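Long-time lurker. I teach an intro course on protein structure, and each term I like to show students one example going from raw sequence to a predicted 3D structure in C-alpha cell notation. This year I'd like something fresh instead of my usual example. Would anyone be willing to generate the C-alpha cells for the chain below so I can use it in lecture? Attribution to the forum is fine with me.
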Amino acid sequence: MVANPARRAAVTDAALELLGREGARAVTHRAVDAEARVPTGTCANYFRSRSDLLAGIAQRIFVLLAPNPDRLDELAELPVDDAGPAYAGYALERLLAHPNLARALVELRLEAPRSPEVAQPLTEFLRAGFDMDVEFHAARGLPGGREHVLRLHHLVNGIVLDALTIPLAPDIDPVTQAKDTARALGR
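-- Reply from a regular --
Happy to contribute to a lecture. Here you go:
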C-alpha cells in the first residue's frame, strides 16, 4: 500500500461524499476513484476490500465532524442554563452544515449491524465520543449526568434524521428545535 496520508484522506473524503449522496450501494472502489478524480485503482491501494473502505470512512468521519475548539470556548462562556441547549444546537448545526456527511454517518450506522468491519470502529468512536461528551458535560458543570447526555444524543440524532429525510415540520428550524427541546429536557 502506498503511504500518502493526504491522498488517503482525499479518497476517504470522496467515499464519504458518495456514501452520503448516493447510499451504501454506490460505494465501490471504481466509483470512489471517479469521485476523488484519481487514477483507477487508487482506492484499492488504500483499502483492499469494500469492508476495509467502509471501516476507513467510519474512522475518518469523526475527524471531519469534530467541533471547533474556539466555538466550544465561546459556548463555555454562556450561563449554565443556556449552555446545554447551545451545545446541543451546535452539534446539530455541525451535522446539518454537511448534510452528505451526516447522511453518511446514518448509512454507516445502518451498515454496522451487517458488517463487523464497520461495527467495530464505528462502535468504538461513537461510544468514546459519548463518554467524552459525558466528561465534557460534567467538566462544564452542566446539569444532569450520563442519562441526560444520552437523551441529548437521542434528541440530536432524531432531529438530524428528520431534517435529512422527510421533515415532519419543515417550517421549524431544526437547530432552534434542538435548543428548545434540550432546554425542556434540562428542567
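Some talking points for your students: Residues 80 and 158 are 24 Å apart (CA to CA). The chain is about 75% helix and 0% strand.
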